[in-house]
Amino acid sequence: MLRAAAWVHWVLFRPCTGLSVRMISSGIDRKGVLANRVAVVTGSTDGIGFSIARRLAQDGAHVVVSSRKQQNVDRAMAALQGEGLSVTGTVCHVGKAEDRERLVATALEHGGGVDFLVCNAAVNPLVGSTVGASEQVWDKILGVNVKAPALLLSQLLPHMENRRGAVILVSSVVAYMPYVELGAYNVSKTALLGLTRTLALELASKDIRVNCLVPGLIKTDFSKVLHKNEAFWNKFKENQRLQRIGQPEDCAGLVSFLCSPDASYITGESIAVAGYSPRL
Amino acid sequence: MLRAAAWVHWVLFRPCTGLSVRMISSGIDRKGVLANRVAVVTGSTDGIGFSIARRLAQDGAHVVVSSRKQQNVDRAMAALQGEGLSVTGTVCHVGKAEDRERLVATALEHGGGVDFLVCNAAVNPLVGSTVGASEQVWDKILGVNVKAPALLLSQLLPHMENRRGAVILVSSVVAYMPYVELGAYNVSKTALLGLTRTLALELASKDIRVNCLVPGLIKTDFSKVLHKNEAFWNKFKENQRLQRIGQPEDCAGLVSFLCSPDASYITGESIAVAGYSPRL
Amino acid sequence: MLRAAAWVHWVLFRPCTGLSVRMISSGIDRKGVLANRVAVVTGSTDGIGFSIARRLAQDGAHVVVSSRKQQNVDRAMAALQGEGLSVTGTVCHVGKAEDRERLVATALEHGGGVDFLVCNAAVNPLVGSTVGASEQVWDKILGVNVKAPALLLSQLLPHMENRRGAVILVSSVVAYMPYVELGAYNVSKTALLGLTRTLALELASKDIRVNCLVPGLIKTDFSKVLHKNEAFWNKFKENQRLQRIGQPEDCAGLVSFLCSPDASYITGESIAVAGYSPRL
Amino acid sequence: MLRAAAWVHWVLFRPCTGLSVRMISSGIDRKGVLANRVAVVTGSTDGIGFSIARRLAQDGAHVVVSSRKQQNVDRAMAALQGEGLSVTGTVCHVGKAEDRERLVATALEHGGGVDFLVCNAAVNPLVGSTVGASEQVWDKILGVNVKAPALLLSQLLPHMENRRGAVILVSSVVAYMPYVELGAYNVSKTALLGLTRTLALELASKDIRVNCLVPGLIKTDFSKVLHKNEAFWNKFKENQRLQRIGQPEDCAGLVSFLCSPDASYITGESIAVAGYSPRL
Question: Is residue D63 within 8 Å of D39, Cβ to Cβ?
């Protein structure tokens, strides 16, 4: 727990508002909700993934962070440990079997089991048109966005069974309403909706729930090509009656809920965090 | 950034914008996440509605309970007050304009505004076939299940604006996958999916989010005709790979989340609490 | 396999199973695909409904046209009879029980049974906001758009059984993606998606299929408030990558298909005729 | 119109029933609908694909049939040519670039352009559990079911532009409601729903519509592991209120419609031919 002086310091000098307040405050009271649990979050050194990792750690879990570059892993771990959170980390390109194995091994160092897996790593969406995509582009997109989560889960599964665990896949509103510019990326995100449902059926008997976070336009480096484009953003905002752009913390709030006992009868669901809904 | 003195002042004395509430309440206790908020829950003296009322009160809200019979209202209030929760109550048949007015008046007795509206009241599902439904049956089902929530919201709306409020409608998995025996009831529940989305668009500018709870088979008196039918239940459970029947508290957990700041970028969504998902 | 003699007998003397009708009629001419069938189309003196009536008559059916005004019925009948098509007509406000009865009676004048029912009559969409809708507005919209098709079908049903019949309800893309300006109209159109599915389940054993036409922006008087608004139309067209506005005949083509033997395994479906799809 | 003698001859000696009636008869009158058009159908020497190929040829198109084995291609071509239909054929494993190129070349032999592409080739669904799927299994399923249709379309596209063309992808009801036994196959079929929509957006400006056939349980060799399992079939039939199992011709009827001018404003849609609908 943060001491009072640190907290005042943070109140005075941290730039952001509501979310961080929530973080600190809920550091006091809700820490218990995921205490003694272990969470693996891929693509978690920046943006949505980082925010999820931080939130699950604030909720009391030990979190294993990872992404493709060592320096990003180091930076994220330093930041989270600086907040007094329990984290370990490792480099992991989810598309590589040996990296996934190392990630599993790192996760198991903390107590021998894993409760939560959040699959956030994804290929950059700007892959061009679907009909222009080469075999290599398809392999990369489907490999990282669809195959890798399934394979990582397969490797983790023996260590997740019968722990009231949860898997969260990260899709996108483009899964439902494709952006023409995103081509094969749209398709990979639709596939994740199906992966969510079939995994939910398969893993129900192992007491593992599987749900899907469906972010809309969230303010991250990943999406800045969209939200920094003022014409796009203004039109998008008007079309969807958005009041504001989403923040990574908005996504983290849902993931925290989906891992918690409050969501213990929710599985197979895909839930948009978008300021609107892309489907009935 | 707020200067420290102003900020402390604001923390202490600002009454009820969502942000300050969030800080103060969650700074103390998870139970306080909805402190100083007022929630109206219809059909809340039994089953899912009662469980939602209790949970929102446990989260710190003042809750207005209601249903069609005085004795049920009395019983529910006694039970909740016996748990030390802040509740008031009134008889309300949501299909009657004067009852809705009385409910609004009762809600306003507690501080002058309303933050959350949960519309749970519904006609019993066993209405027979769709083609066998008379004009009277249709009027009753559409009246209570679809029209009444919209009209109640209209009456409450002037008191809900700009408070970071939330509306939760209660649909059903039969909205997506109709049970043939439920006829017009299925249709009314599908209509609520549309009502959720159109209200979400309309109310976004008033800082009110609108989402939809989609229960599956939940163990209540309302549904016992289904779950007490062993043949039905066994087949249903097997078809959906269910591990257990849902409990009213499972629904309450989602509603608690949807009212909380963690869901502040979620609107227009319909989320199943069913042990499976009825849709992509 | 039937022996030839028995089969010839059956071709000649079996009155009205779908199969024999199919063989005989389509043996003559594509225009005859619906020969010897009777179709009731509501709201059919203008726009989409008129186009459907014309197409089903061109396909060989006898078509009963109707709408609220005698002069419109007269005009439509004159136009269709002028094309050599087989039609009768009557005034019918679908929200009125006695009008529905008269429509049924008119339909039965032609051979004693009805094969197809297309429910196109609808309240004008410009009903204002959902939260601004009075009880009277809701009653009108739900009454005409949702209840009336169900009640008309109930009245026709005894005359539609076991004829390989088909019902087509007419929803709208706003059922999936509401326009904020259309309020309760959106909700009624979503309800029709549910009505389609529950009726399909109920009527399967009577050999009646039930499907839903989901028009997008179709060039009619009904929709001109939208497509005549150049700003709206340009934005809409760009958002959905539309190449053109839809024509009533585009809708009629789908309805013709849905009534034909080619669609004999399609039931419960909702199909958009919109130049794009509003859902996965 | 068929002369009586020919018709009696056909009655006596043709093996199949209703569908063939339709075929022969519509061979006279509807032949025009796709006359002078060229259609490529993959996986078309058996089952659903064969039925689609036959129907499009009956509608007047020249059809290029293909599948993985020369003897199957020879058999299918002989059967179709024996019916007086215009077909050519080639071996094509859609997962192989050189095979796709040969298929394109074969298609271009007939007039230099292609109007319709129906992608039916698919990996056998019995691939086991999702979490048990190896990287090789994923590569095969996603490669053949998702990547191959996209790549084949890319190769054909220069020859399809501005001809009022149509692409039909073949998904499955398991895209919406996964069967737990089908694992990664379910996921690939969900991906096709997304591929349909993103391609529809991309190709609208080239006057090519893209839609998706969503078969339910259709009586083919491919699906016999399901429909031959009596316990499964009986339960499935009861759950979905099915009156009968689907026939390949039911699928062909929809594809014929989707290629025809009657569907010229339908794009991006997924339509179930299943005797029920798996979604709103």
Answer: yes
Supply the angle between the helices A248-259 and A47-58 in degrees, to the nearest 10.
40
Q: What pLDDT does residue D138 have?
A: 97
C227 belongs to a structural domain: no
List, in order, residues 6 or more apart from D147 with CB less than 8 Å away. Answer: A135, A138, A139, A142, D95
For residue A265, indicate whether it is catalytic.
Answer: no
More confident residue, B29 or C204: C204
Q: Does residue B257 surpass a pLDDT of 60? A: yes
D57 is a domain residue: yes
Q: Which of B39-43, B174-178, C13-17, D87-91 has the lowest mean pLDDT?
A: C13-17
pLDDT in the model for residue D30: 55
B154–chain C nearest CA distance, Å: 5
Query: Could you tell me the CATH number of the domain that includes residue D137?
Result: 3.40.50.720
CA atoms of A185 and A123, how far apart (whole Å)? 8
Confidence of residue A26 (pLDDT cuts 50, 70, 90): very low
Task: Determine, yes or no, domain membership for D189.
Answer: yes
Number of separate domains in chain C: 1
What is the predicted pLDDT for the residue at A125? 79
* Chain-chain contact of A180 with D193 (C-beta, under 8 angstroms): no
pLDDT digits (tens, 9 = 90+) for B179-238: 998 999 999 999 999 999 999 999 999 999 999 999 999 999 888 888 888 888 998 898
C10 touching D (Cβ < 8 Å):
no
Please give the pLDDT value at position A11. 28
C136 in a structural domain: yes
B22–A22 C-beta distance less than 8 A: yes
Which of A176, A185, A265, A276 is catalytic? The answer is A185
Give the residue from C171, C177, C234, C277 with the most A CB atoms within 10 Å of its CB, the best one to mutate.
C177
Domain that holds residue B144: 17-270
Tokens describing residue B61? 């809200």
Specify burial of residue D182 (Cβ count, 10 A radius: 0-12, 13-18, 19+).
buried
What DSSP assignment string belongs to chain B? ---HHHHHHHHHH----HHHHHHHHHHH-GGGGGTT-EEEESS-SSHHHHHHHHHHHHTT-EEEEEES-HHHHHHHHHHHHHTT--EEEEE--TT-HHHHHHHHHHHHTTTS---EEEE-----S----STT--HHHHHHHHIIIIIHHHHHHHHHGGGTTTS-EEEEEE--GGGTS--GGGTHHHHHHHHHHHHHHHHHHHHGGGTEEEEEEEE-SB-SSTTHHHHT-HHHHHHHHHHHT-SS-B-HHHHHHHHHHHHSGGGTT--S-EEEESSS-S--
Whole-number pLDDT of residue A83: 98
The answer to which of A132-141, B9-18, B58-67, C88-97 has the lowest mean pLDDT is B9-18
